[in-house]
């Protein structure tokens, strides 16, 4: 296993992220991916397969706390077979506890199903048996906490109550966009859960953790000085946006823009970005529903851009609209493809209009 890169896809709840927390204590090269049910699962599996082809390394595709449909299981089996026929050396393992995966579990050896344990407990037991595993002293207790709340074992009162707080910690950790910043968002959640494990044996542990969540979040985002959580998170997001400028830049009619997806809080984050990076004329944040929020800093009228892109409007420096026919995506590159097609279409139509006017 030491020479095999692990591509770990897991769910986006406490159980899913806790599977990845368990795997932090194995020594292997790993990439984490997270998905909710539906189209996101297939998109993230596509991303994993692309990554494996790019790296050309022996790999393990590890899927936890997600049940695949019969069609998804058949497709993935076929894709892995094709990789191995091309001498890629890829193995596949799924560990899950949702009974809806029974059909696939009966058909495929790589599909392990046990409805009596949460996915984190399955992952924990599997890691101890199959991986090099440097288990911290709090791990077993933490796994029992996740198992209690995920299977709703209210009779395990202390574990259940602590698990509820951990569950809320994950559900309300939304300062980062999972699509824009998947690696950083994963690290954020895993870091908070790791810190949460430290208080698991404290007297009144659920209350202790409940009162510390705000400060744990601030500590993650804090750099040089203290500030409000909103300001600390905003500065962090602007920093991430800045680092990704080379791949997130778009152009429209000669103006330089920045495309973000699902970041939100555009008035503060967008203006913060434009102030820090004045070479950009505008920034546009698109939501999963295709609504867009644009900001500028006196370099271009985003009201006009919004009108041309989506029949939207607003003010010269703050505007919005909704893109007709926008398809929700779970990978940033797919979002950018849609927006650049829109830009090319609008610029092409504008060019045709100018040509006809000249005639």
How does this structure look, described?
This protein is of the alpha/beta class and 359 residues long. Helices cover 52% and strands 16% of the residues. The protein has 14 helices and eleven strands. The chain has helices at residues 14-23, 39-55, 70-85, 102-107, 119-130, 139-150, 157-171, 182-196, 205-221, 229-243, 245-248, 266-276, 302-310, 332-358; strands at residues 5-10, 30-34, 59-64, 90-96, 111-113, 249-252, 255-261, 282-286, 291-296, 313-315, 318-322. The strands form two sheets. Strands 6-7-8-9-11-10 form a six-stranded mixed beta sheet. A five-stranded parallel beta sheet has the order 2-1-3-4-5, with helices on both faces. Strand 3 (59-64), helix 3 and strand 4 (90-96) form a beta-alpha-beta unit. Helix 1 crosses helix 8, helix 8 (182-196) packs antiparallel against helix 9 and helix 9 crosses helix 10 (229-243). It starts with a strand and ends with a helix. Mean pLDDT is 93; it is low at 352-359.
Order of helices and strands: EHEHEHEHEHHHHHHHEEHEEHEEH
For the CA atoms, what is the radius of gyration?
Answer: 23 Å
Structural category is alpha/beta
> What is the number of E strands?
11
Main beta sheet: 6 strands, mixed
Proportion of strand residues: 15-25%
From the N-terminal CA to the C-terminal CA, the straight-line distance is 69 Å
The shape, in one word, is: globular
Report the total helices.
14
The average pLDDT score comes to: 93
Helix content: 40-55%
Strand order, sheet with most strands: 6-7-8-9-11-10
List low-pLDDT spans: 352-359
